[in-house]
User: Fold these one by one.
Assistant:
Number 1:
Amino acid sequence: MTIEKATLLLKMMSNPIRLGILRELTLREEICVGNLEKILNISQSSASQHLAHLRNSGIVTSRKHGKKVCYRVSEESVKDILKALNI
């Protein structure tokens, strides 16, 4: 991971909702927006907005399953950093 990418990841992690999303993504291979809403008790629009920030930053990737959009962490190093922080 480059210094620029690490800096961006840490910036994204400074938001509690995005940190929660990243934590959930490290616990699962992939998760859909609807499931994140329920787990984190946030609205669909909030989940989508935060996921868009993470996707635009290259931290997560997305793919469609019919009408559902599911996300996963883009690099193992993201999972490693969260594990190191014990989050």
Number 2:
Amino acid sequence: GAKLLGELWSQRKPVAPGQESEQPAIPDLPPIQVIRQEQTQPLSHRHQLQLVPAPTPRWPGGLLAFEESIGLLMSGKLFSAHICTHEWAESGRSATEEERRHFYDCLMAPMAGQVDSLVERLEELDITTVAPGHGPAIDTSWRSLFNDYRRWGESQQQASLSVALLFASAYGNTAAIADALAQGVGRTGVRITSLNCEFTPPDELINTIKQADGILIGSPTLGGHAPTPIVSALGTLLAEGDRSKPVGVFGSFGWSGEAIDLLENKLRDGGFHFAFDPIRVKFSPDAAKIRTLEETGTRFGRELLREQRKQQRRSGGGLSESRSDPAVLALGRVVGSLCVLTARKGELSGAMIASWVTQASFTPPGFTVAVAKDRAVEALLHIGDCFALNVLAEGRESGPMKQFLQPFEPGADRFAGLELKASPGEQPLLPEALAWMEATVKQRMECGDHWLIYAEVSHGGVLDPEGGTAVHQRRSGANY
């Protein structure tokens, strides 16, 4: 980084042949100090910064700074939220909790082990205020946020299945693909171990590969080749990897993508089986591609869980304790209306069958709906997002259920071939529904493997006043 900055500093506008440059002389670049270990940097007025290197696979050059006299921690990406406020600091934890959790799930969860170690180190500092690189500062509830980071990380570390995510990235594009895949896998509850091969010791790489239940490996293409760290990681995977474990290949390229071909051919010739076709992204992924990548990661995680359940049934004689539990059987007698939840946000859209729905308030009119964490549409149901709930009619529910219960390929249009209407907020409506409501997400509560969404109704209508509501009857609370 220091070398690159020095080269950029000396760049000048080209001068035509025979002409003299009228550009002023470039001043000397101030001395650059590369921070490789913790140290203290004196400042003026008796201030001093304690500099703490914080390398992670996504940001190997991460650096935290702590001003000791006032207790200000400048935490960079840690504890960030992608929101902009007029106030210097948040008013309370609840004001930004949703955004900070979303930031963690998207970018920190694949590095939970490294992040937890950093949080443990920071707890030793005499902090009064945390100022992250994105979002408002935290001055009254930073301990609560630290505890949340630990709790969120524990759920990752306690997962029974893990995926090794190996990558290198020249300009951040391959890393963006890795982030999206990791977020999708993480929604299924499978642990992600993210390793930037450029900065990973060989022993750590070998141990991660041996312990993983699935491998994802990605590379940029530089001058028609894969970077040396990826070639080395590929050799380690071929030597140490379990051929019974699924793999996936991805990468970004600008011209032809030879590095992706190298990974695919070597792994296929080495006897590995692929969970999905190699992912090739020219330059950087757009929003639609990010959505497809997330769904690909989710499918990868689901396949691992499905295989684990098969093995458990074989070893347990096919008996499922949860399905025979009297309490779970009783829970299955709780019934709900059959609905189709639809959502559109910009160019992105999604839908799902929803039967865990109930009215939650009179004033304002509101309801709750439970959404599994691994549902693709969950990404469109954050606080402030709008969606529609289409209540299905008794006797006419089979068509919509067949449409939305079918397995979709990652990135597929859930509404392909359907004639839709639109709510006042441009949310998709099903003409064959009994009734519809347009609502805005106001609160989210984490409930095990689901999110409970509370939404306030802004518009609605009954399309068939004489019809009855389709109700879903179950025998067990262990499934939908």
